[in-house]
Every structure is written in structure tokens, then in C-alpha cells.
Amino acid sequence: MNISQLHVDSLEKWIDDRQDAYLKKGLHLAALAGIESLADFREDHGLSEEDMKKSLPQIKTELSMAEEFFKDARQILFAGRQGG
Questions:
Q1: Which of 78, 77, 76, 63 is closest to 14 using CA atoms?
Q2: Looking at residues 55-81, what average pLDDT do you find?
Q3: Other CB atoms closer than 10 Å to residue 31's CB: what's the count?
Q4: Helix ranges, the chain (H)
Q5: 38 Cβ partners below 8 Å, 6+ apart?
Q6: What's the CA gap between 6 and 64, in Å, rounded?
Q7: 55 and 29 Cβ atoms separated by less than 8 Å
Q8: Mean pLDDT of all residues belonging to the chain
């Protein structure tokens, strides 16, 4: 399989999505824990139904995997450009 620059660039959207979910979930949980200054985050604030069901560590793991996969895909792309 060949990986293109477009494929690698598109993976950044996955990372952005997981970062966004991680931050929203963390703020949501902190608000539910009673942090008054975060009361606006008691509602789901754009988290998908799927992400609402996940724990914060699960989302963090997904974020880490997305970042690692992006690095791997970028290395494969560059190796292919160099003939390796």
C-alpha cells in the first residue's frame, strides 16, 4: 500500500478530534466534580454519544494511538520518497 501526503495530512484531523474530545471530557468531569468555575461544562458540550460513554483514560489512549500512528505513517511516507 502506498501512503500519500494527503493521507498523512488527513490523520491530523483524527488527532485534532481526539484532542478536542479529551479536553471536553476532562472539563466535563471536573465540572461534575463540583468545580464551580467550570459549571458551563456540566453539559456534554459537543461530545459525541460514543465519547460520553468512554472514560477519560480511554480517550487519552485513543489520542496517544492517533499521535503514534501519525508519526509512523509519516515515517513510512518519507521512507517511500527516499526509495526505502
A1: 63
A2: 93
A3: 18
A4: 5-32, 49-53, 56-81
A5: 27, 30, 31
A6: 21
A7: no
A8: 92
Cα distance between residue 74 and residue 84, in whole Å: 13
| Alpha-carbon distances, residue 73 vs 1, 37, 55, 62, 65 (angstroms) | 11, 40, 27, 16, 12
List the grid coordinates of 21: 474530545
Question: Residue 74 has what pLDDT?
Answer: 93
Residue 59 burial (CB < 10 Å; 0-12/13-18/19+)? buried
Q: What is the mean pLDDT of residues 9-37?
A: 96
Grid cell locating 67: 499521535
Between CA 37 and CA 58 the distance in angstroms is 25
Kindly state the cell numbers that stand for 50.
Answer: 460514543
